[in-house]
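Throughout this chapter, every protein is written as a compact record of paired, labelled lines. The reader may check this reading against the record printed directly beneath this paragraph:
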Amino acid sequence: MIFTVLLFVAGLATLIGGAELFLRSVDKFGAAWSVSPVVMGLTVVAFATGAPELAISLQAAVDGKPDLVVGNILGSNIANILLILGIAGLVHPLKITNRIIKVDVPMVLAASGLLFVLAMDGLLSPLDGGIIFMALIGYSVFMYFQIRKDRADNISINGGETKLKEPLTAVFYVKYVVLLLIGLVLIVMGSRFMVHSAVEIAGVLGISELIIGLTIVSIGTSLPEVATSVSAVRHGDSDTAVANVMGSNLYNILLTLSLTVLIAPGAIDVSMDAVNLDLPIMVIVAGACLPLFWPGKELGRPEAFGFLTYYGLYLAYLVLISIQHPFKDQFEGIMVWIVIPVTVLLIILKFVLDYRRVRL
């Protein structure tokens, strides 16, 4: 057990160091190519930090562990918003751009809704995987034109000059490609160390694969996003932090899940527990971002604390389910009849106050 704990700590240190290297390299390439932090966060950063989810889901599908696949995807998407934005928002209030509000959050909500509809029958068939993969192609085409437009706009604003203080030579590209790859390798290694040690502990405790996927594995595979987003916020880059989360959620569904379903030997079963609880929560959490982000265009510390509180309550409920604790029914009643209605009222109140403040 001591070795397992040491492995967990070593993984955390490796993860943080890799995130710093990776983000530094991404910033350099974004400046060199005249691409905004939002677009870099939605593409390069989101794709790279989503690598652990892809690797673990593909391996779980091959090993015939559908609950781990589904739990990993759903748990990661819930953690990305509630946990990562919660932590990042506590470090520093997050500024939200118009593009995130008008384009990226609705896309995450649409992808989450699509997955919910396809999984309602308890199965994700190869046909379902093909539908999700076609959505990925459509999103990729959209992002291609967005990158071209973003680059043209930035070049026009900057008069054709980049923000780099070093020349764009072969040495520049070799140097930062190597640093980026080293950072990515460290991120993946750190995540694997932490997930492996956490799953080992959970296995000893006798926790189900779905619960492991929704909690330990999903948190572990979301750690690259945590490290990258917090590092971005510490450097005053809210755009990358928020875009990383939205892009990662999209890639988790459109890329990771579609490929996993397509290569899996047959359809992937989706448990009724996931259909009745975790899928709706994933959709609700994505939808809640719209009234919270707009019209104030900021995720402040109170909202970030609320995100973390809800994530803690969600984990607590999963634990109660896993151990079949008698308090589970009372917990459900408190959430349904007290906590959720109060939260809805607070969101509406914040929306109205922000709207009035913006109008004035």
The chain has a mean pLDDT of 83. The two ends are 59 Å apart (CA to CA).
